[in-house]
Specification:
This protein has helices spanning about 5, 10-20, 70-80, and strands at about 30-40, 40, 45-50, 55-60, 60-65, 85-100, 110-120, 130-135. By secondary structure, the chain is α+β, with helices and mostly antiparallel strands. The protein has one domain (about 5-145): Alpha-Beta Complex (Nucleoside Triphosphate Pyrophosphohydrolase), CATH 3.90.79. The strands form two sheets. A four-stranded mixed beta sheet has the order 5-1-7-6, covered by helices on one side. Strands 2, 3, 4 and 8 form a four-stranded antiparallel beta sheet that branches. The longest helix is centred in the middle third of the chain and has 13 residues, at about 70-80. The protein is globular and about 40 Å long.
Length: about 150
């Protein structure tokens, strides 16, 4: 089902997890979810959101919906969460993220396809979440490797 994404994965653990799980969306698989996140810069600062449940600064991201490509998810989540639009997404990383139990879900794993895209020079629309523009020094350590 995810052949178009599996061939983009270099990590054998992630590839095996994807091959073993025929369904990777939230309603059909409570243990492993497919997600997509977006790295985008405004000038020289990376755009982050404050996660509404975990209360930490993260990249705009969300679950890949059925019949949606991961790159589309990353662009959609950027727009919904930050009010910014981007174009030309390019896959830059694939990660396993352990999600702790919370008010919506039991503990589970995200296979996160991380994209980088170019910010479109249009006005920011209404953001669903608090938005932060951080320099490399200000950014959480796990995201510093994506800075030029």
């Amino acid at each position: 089902m995810y052949e178009n994404l599996i061939h983009q994965v270099n990590n054998p653990q992630i590839k095996k997890l994807m091959q073993e799980n025929q369904e990777l969306n939230r309603p059909n698989n409570p243990q492993v979810h497919l997600s997509a996140s977006m790295v985008v810069f405004k000038e020289e600062k990376m755009i982050f959101i404050e996660h509404p449940i975990q209360k930490e600064l993260l990249l705009p991201a969300g679950h890949v919906e059925p019949n949606e490509e991961a790159a589309q998810t990353a662009l959609r989540e950027l727009k919904e969460e930050t009010g910014f639009s981007a174009e030309h997404p390019k896959l830059i990383d694939v990660n396993l993220i352990n999600i702790p139990e919370n008010s919506k879900d039991k503990a589970h794993i995200h296979i996160d396809f991380r994209y980088q895209a170019q910010l479109i020079n249009t006005p920011q629309t209404n953001a669903e979440l608090p938005v932060f523009f951080l320099s490399k020094e200000e950014a959480p350590a796990e995201f510093r490797k994506y800075f030029p």
